[in-house]
Design goal:
This protein has 429 residues and is an alpha/beta fold. 47% of the residues lie in helices and 17% in strands. Bound molecules: nicotinamide-adenine-dinucleotide, L-histidinol and zinc ion (ZN). Belongs to the histidinol dehydrogenase family.
Length: 429
């Protein structure tokens, strides 16, 4: 169910290209119609689409999660869940605290310059919930916003047929103090956050991963609001030499395959023996897992084992693919790290499985996918902050540079610009 390719780049890149073009254009018309419905009819359309795509029937008053629903969720989560969540919150918060940028200012001879950093006022967080519920994505999206100081954090996530949200997702929101949670998902939720409805006031920015409908909607509303990035279906690339354990490698490949039929799981290895063993292990372990159908589809279409001659070739492949997650299951991972240029998150050694990063190591699990790690970075505190330049010149300091400013304005033919300098010295001279 997972093919071995012998060093041929072409076959691999053709598959990846096909995957990255399973794309927006096929879904755009339907998503545009949904967004237009939300823009024109607000809550009425939101409730209609929630019924159509999620099977949940609400009145406008039932969209927002109530305090009773938050409290009830604590009774439903498994033993140990809240303690595990609190450890994850601690690690993720500590990691993101280090990303916080401060305002800075400099001054000399009547000139005061600086950069004032402020949080974005309101942010909408999309927490996926179609085929699985993601309490961990609540933490990954909200904690950097909290660290940044965002005042209004709004969370949306799709309800199940009976109109309920996952208790784990609700507990995660409650633990972080998020009060505004709405039971809507898909493109209609993105539309509600971007344009506002009678029940959901609009936000300034929308963040968070989701399926192709969510990603297409985020792209479409960019400009009405800001967005973080298009974090699409999950990906893993394991780069392994003969020191790797085939059981661990197979398990890590399967961990991402279970997210989505469009997820991609790749192994690049220098060892033919390992390639064969991983192939067998993948079959053996899949039989023991629950989300077999998704895994089998994802591996059939986007699972590959690539045999290469040496580690240099493997690294070149990895940099070209720019995966969301890159595991370096090699004897000397820290040496290989130096040559990695493009990856959302890099996991070193045989005991740093990707799911550790998904849940509680500390770094963010919202990462660039589909090769966009060549230019995008993981979701971070910076995504929730904006900067303003600060400029002060004294009368004397302006006098020193007035001629140069007027020459530059003149060169652009902008006499009103020149005049704004000139009037100050006509009056005072
Ligand atoms: N990068 C990350 O950090 C990260 C984290 C978690 C999940 N993910 C990814 O997020 C995705 C989650 O997808 P999901 O589907 O489970 O949840 P989702 O919440 O993204 O999507 C579910 C919604 O899609 C809409 N929808 C479904 N079928 C539709 C249709 N035919 N027409 C219109 N709308 C439709 C529905 O409104 C539904 O509420 C997966 O691809 C997973 O890999 C990524
Ligand atoms: N691996 C996903 C990002 O691609 C994140 C996640 C959440 N829960 C489990 N995994
Ligand atoms: Zn995952």
């Amino acid at each position: 169910m997972i093919d071995i390719i012998n060093g041929s780049k072409d076959e691999l890149f053709a598959t990846l290209k096909e995957r990255s073009t399973v794309d927006f254009k096929d879904y755009q018309p339907q998503v545009d119609e949904i967004l237009q419905g939300i823009q024109e009819r607000g809550d009425e359309a939101l409730l209609e689409y929630t019924k159509k795509f999620d099977g949940a029937v609400f009145t406008p008053q039932q969209i927002a999660v109530t305090e009773e629903e938050f409290q009830g969720a604590y009774d439903e989560v498994a033993e140990g869940f809240v303690a595990a969540l609190r450890l994850a919150i601690k690690n993720i918060r500590e990691y993101h605290e280090k990303q916080k940028q401060n305002s800075w200012f400099t001054s000399s001879e009547g000139v005061f310059l600086g950069q004032k950093v402020s949080p974005i006022a309101s942010v909408g967080i999309y927490v996926p919930g179609g085929t699985a519920a993601y309490p961990s994505s609540v933490l990954m999206n909200a904690l950097p916003a909290i660290v940044a100081g965002v005042k209004r954090i709004v969370m949306v996530t799709p309800p199940g047929k009976e109109g309920k949200l996952s208790p784990g997702v609700l507990v995660a929101a409650k633990e972080l103090g998020i009060k505004e949670v709405y039971k809507v998902g898909g493109a209609q939720a993105v539309g509600a956050l971007a344009f506002g409805t009678q029940s959901i006031p609009k936000v300034d920015k929308i963040v968070g991963p989701g399926n192709i409908y969510v990603a297409t909607a985020k792209r479409a509303v960019y400009g009405y609001v800001d967005i973080d990035m298009i974090a699409g279906p999950s990906e893993i690339l394991v780069l392994a030499d003969e020191s790797a354990n085939p059981r661990y490698v197979a398990a890590d490949l399967l961990s991402q395959a279970e997210h989505d039929p469009l997820a991609s799981s790749l192994l690049i290895t220098t060892s033919e023996v390992l390639a064969e063993e991983v192939k067998e292990e993948v079959l053996r372990q899949t039989a023991l897992l629950e989300r077999k159908e998704i895994i089998e589809k994802s591996l059939k279409d986007y699972g590959k084992i690539i045999l290469v001659k040496n580690l240099e070739e493997a690294v070149a492949f990895a940099n070209e693919i720019a995966p969301e997650h890159l595991e370096l299951c090699v004897e000397k991972p820290f040496e290989v790290l130096n040559s990695i240029e493009n990856a959302g998150a890099i996991f070193l050694g045989h005991y740093t499985p990707e799911p550790l990063g998904d849940y509680l190591a500390g770094p963010n699990h919202v990462l660039p996918t589909s090769g966009t790690a060549k230019f995008y970075s993981p979701l971070s505190v910076e995504d929730y902050m904006k900067k303003s330049s600060v400029i002060y010149y004294s009368q004397e300091a302006l006098k020193k540079v007035k001629d140069e400013v007027m020459i530059l304005a003149e060169a652009e033919g902008l006499t009103a610009h020149k005049n704004s300098i000139k009037v100050r010295y006509e009056e005072n001279d």
